[in-house]
Specification:
Elements lengths: L4 E4 L2 H5 L19 H18 L6 E4 L5 E5 L7 E6 L7 H6 L9 H4 L13 E6 L3
InterPro entries: CAT-like_dom_sf
């Protein structure tokens, strides 16, 4: 069995260690788009990206001397969490667009993946689909 890869952080990486970036991409799908095919395509794209950038699958760790690393186990993958909202569970895109996507209209607790407590993953993804929007 292969050992986990240990990536030392650059000085630039160390400056951003404590920052979590949360990104929302809002996109209206055409009616002809098959959501199951779209979800499968996104999942396959993430899987391909992690083959080329295995550091994405790692977790931030600090050794006993206080030095920070990213540790990635061979064959690990970034999990893409899928959340499908029913039309009654979230405001539709038309309402969000009318208010200019005001932050109070978009609940990050619903739309972002839960932050794990046991590990510190480098990358965590959630695809939130608002059906009927």
């Amino acid at each position: 069995m292969e050992d986990a890869m240990k990536y030392e952080l650059s000085d630039m990486d160390k400056m951003g260690m404590r920052k979590i970036v949360k990104l929302f991409i809002v996109y209206e799908l055409q009616s002809a788009v098959d959501l199951d095919i779209l979800i499968a395509s996104i999942t396959a794209g993430v899987r391909n990206a992690t083959k080329r950038l295995p550091i994405m699958t790692g977790d931030l760790e600090v050794d006993s001397s206080g030095k920070a690393y990213i540790v990635a186990a061979p064959g690990s993958q970034v999990e893409v969490n899928i959340r499908r909202f029913k039309p009654t569970e979230h405001k539709p895109l038309s309402v969000l667009a009318a208010s200019g996507f005001h932050p109070s209209d978009m609940d990050p607790v619903q739309l972002l993946p839960e932050e794990p407590t046991a590990k510190n993953p480098v990358c965590s993804l959630q695809l939130s689909v608002i059906e009927g929007a």
